[in-house]
Design goal:
Two copies of one chain form a homodimer. By secondary structure, the first copy, chain A, is α+β, with helices and mostly antiparallel strands. Chain A contains 13 helices and ten strands.
C-alpha cells in the first residue's frame, strides 16, 4: 500500500502528508504538449536509465509504468493516491511514471513538464521529502541536460514554476479551525505570505473533509531550502492554531463536539449509501474524535487511507469492477462499514 | 410498567395502542370547572367505592391518586403515558385518578367531566378496550346517578361529547404512507367519514415520529358499538394501505429505505444530544426497520416504550432529578444508548 497512506508521520493528528515536487525539462526538446509519441518514449527511457541504472546507487525498487498500459480505473487510482496528476492520467499517448515500491517517490514523465519528481511522505516531513526529491534530481542531472537559464533558473512549461521548479506542500486536517470559523483568517494570512491553499484534489476543489493543501506559490528568486523551511514554519504555526482551537472547543463545546463526532461515527458504521463528499466529512469528524480521545481503537492511518479508498477509482479498483455513481455510493458504504 | 407500553398487541407493526374513553357526569353536581374542592373529593370517593367496593367483583388492583399528592414530574409522566390528560394534570385542586396496577384502566375524576373512564391496550384491541371500559361504566352506574337526557343522551361539559360520551381511538405508526406522501389523502378521507386525526400528544401537536391518533369526532346519534366498529374498520383499511406502501417502498426504494433506517439506528446508538422530536423521528425509522426485518434483536415493545421514556417528564422521573432542556437532551441520548 501507498507509503503515505499506510503509516502516519510526525504531527499525524493534523498533518496527513508532506510533498515536494520538482519540475524539470530536457534541453532542446519541445514541452510535452508539443511532443509526439516517439520522442516521448525517449525521455521516459532516459529517466528510467538515470534512476535505475547500475551506477545510481539507489536501493529503491522502481518500475516504469506507461499510462497507455493502464485502464482508466488504475490511472485515476494513482491520481486519488496523489501519486500522479489528473493531467498525466489523461495523457495516454506519452504519459509515463516511474514509481518506487513504497509509492513514496514518483516521477511523472510528460505531465505539463517533461519531468516532475515527487516525494510524498506521511505526516510533517517536508525536509525528508525535499532531500529525497533532491537526490532523485541529482541522479537525473548526471545523465540529462536540463533546460536552464542563468536569469530564470530551471525553465518550465508554465511560468509559475520557473526558477527552482519546486513546489512544496502539506495536507493538513483543520476541523476545529473550520468549525469555529477561524479558517478564513488562517487562509487569508497564508495567502498574504505567498502560500496557496487548495482542496485535497487540487485547484478548484472544495475543502472536502476539512482537508487543506498548503503550498508555496512562488518558486523564483528564492532558494529551495527557503521554500521548504518557510512552509515548515507556517505549518507549525497552523498546527498550533488548530490545537488551540481544539482545546477551546473542548472547553466550551465538549458535548456538542462529542455529539457531532459520535453521530458521524454512527452514520459511517451504519449507512447503506454514502457519497464521497459526505464520507470525507464524516471521516473528518471521526478523525477529530480519535485525536481527542473520544473514540478508541481506530488507527489514524486507517482513517487516512479510508479517505483515498472511498474515492471513485480506488473504490472500483477495490471491488474489481466498474461501478456507476449509485453503485459506488452503495459499495462505498459497504467498504466503510467493513473497514470500521 | 404501563400495560400498553410493556407489551405489543395484534397488528403491532402498525397499531401501537387502542383506547376507549367514556365521559360521564354526576346528576345535580356542577361541572368540574365550577366545582369547589370539598365537593370534588366526594365524587372521587364515590368512584373509588363503586369500583373497589366489596361487591364490585372486579379482580383488578386499583388505587386512588390525587393530583395534589404528586409533583409536576409525576403528574406529567402520567400524561406522557397517556393515562391522564394535561387538563387533569393541571387540575391540582380536585383532580384525581383511579388506576389499576397494570395501568390499562384509568378513571380521571374532574377532568373536563366529572368522570372519564379510559381503557388503553397495546395493538388493535378496540373491542377489548370498549368491553373493559363498559364494565367499569356499569359498575359506576350501579352507585352513581349519571346526568342523562332522553334526547341528548349522557350530558357532558363539552357538547362534542354529548350522546354516548364515547371516544374511541387508535395510535398508528404510518411511516411508509408518510414517506411516500400518501398520508394527506388518507387523513382527508378519514376526516370525510367523521374521524379526527391528531398527533401523539393530542390536538395541535405535530405528527411526531409518524404517529397518528385516529378517533371518532361524533358521539351523538350513533351507538357505542357502531363507533367502535367504524373505527375498527377504518383502522384495518389504513393498516392495509400502510402495508402496501411498505411493500412498494421495498420494491422501488429498498436501498434508500435501508440507508435511512440504519442511519437513524446509528445516530440513536451514538448521539450525545437528542431532542424528543428528533428522537421520535429516529425511533420511527428504526421501528420500520424492525418491522421490515432490516434490524434484528430489538423488541418492538422496547421501541414503543422508548417513545414515552424520552419525553421530558418520563426522563426526569427515570433519572430521579429535575433537568433543564439541555440536560434533558444529553440524558435522553444516554437513555437511548443504554436501551439499544
Amino acid at each position: 500500500m501507498t507509503g503515505w497512506l499506510k503509516e502516519t508521520g510526525p504531527e499525524a493528528d493534523i498533518v496527513i502528508s508532506s510533498r515536494v515536487r520538482i519540475a524539470r525539462n530536457v534541453e532542446g526538446v519541445p514541452f510535452p504538449h508539443h511532443l509526439i509519441e516517439a520522442k516521448g518514449g525517449e525521455i521516459a527511457n532516459m529517466v528510467y536509465d538515470s534512476i535505475v541504472g547500475a551506477n545510481s546507487g539507489l536501493k529503491e525498487d522502481f518500475k516504469l509504468i506507461s499510462m497507455k498500459e493502464l485502464d482508466e480505473i488504475n490511472r485515476f487510482n494513482y491520481v486519488e493516491k496523489h501519486l500522479i496528476s489528473p493531467g498525466l492520467a489523461k495523457n495516454i499517448d506519452i504519459g509515463n511514471m516511474l514509481l518506487n515500491s513504497e509509492e513514496t517517490i514518483s516521477v511523472m514523465i510528460h505531465e505539463e513538464d517533461h519531468i516532475r519528481i515527487q516525494c510524498l511522505l506521511p505526516g510533517l516531513q517536508l525536509n525528508e521529502a525535499w532531500n529525497t526529491a533532491d537526490k532523485i534530481d541529482d541522479l537525473l542531472e548526471e545523465k540529462i541536460n536540463y533546460a536552464f537559464d542563468e536569469e530564470f533558473g530551471y525553465l518550465t512549461a508554465c511560468p509559475t514554476n520557473l526558477g527552482t521548479g519546486i513546489r512544496a506542500s502539506v495536507m493538513v486536517h483543520l476541523p476545529a479551525l473550520t468549525l469555529m470559523g477561524y479558517i478564513q483568517g488562517v487562509l487569508r494570512a497564508a495567502g498574504q505570505i505567498g502560500l496557496a491553499v487548495r482542496g485535497i484534489y487540487g485547484e478548484g476543489t472544495d475543502f472536502l473533509g476539512n482537508l487543506y493543501q498548503i503550498s508555496n506559490q512562488v518558486s523564483l528568486g528564492i532558494t529551495e531550502k527557503e521554500i521548504v523551511s518557510n512552509l515548515q514554519d507556517v505549518t507549525l504555526q497552523i498546527i498550533e492554531k488548530e490545537r488551540r482551537a481544539r482545546e477551546n472547543l473542548l472547553i466550551g463545546k465538549r458535548i456538542e463536539l462529542e455529539d457531532r463526532v459520535f453521530r458521524s461515527y454512527g452514520i459511517l458504521k451504519n449507512a447503506r449509501k454514502i457519497t464521497a463528499n459526505e464520507g470525507m466529512q464524516l471521516i473528518s469528524d471521526v478523525k477529530l474524535g480519535v485525536d481527542l480521545g473520544f473514540i478508541e481503537g481506530i488507527a489514524l492511518g486507517k482513517l487516512n487511507s479510508l479517505i483515498t479508498m472511498i474515492q471513485p477509482a480506488s473504490l472500483q479498483k477495490h471491488f474489481k469492477t466498474p461501478l456507476n455513481a449509485t453503485e459506488r455510493d452503495i459499495k462505498r458504504a459497504e467498504l466503510i462499514r467493513n473497514t470500521l
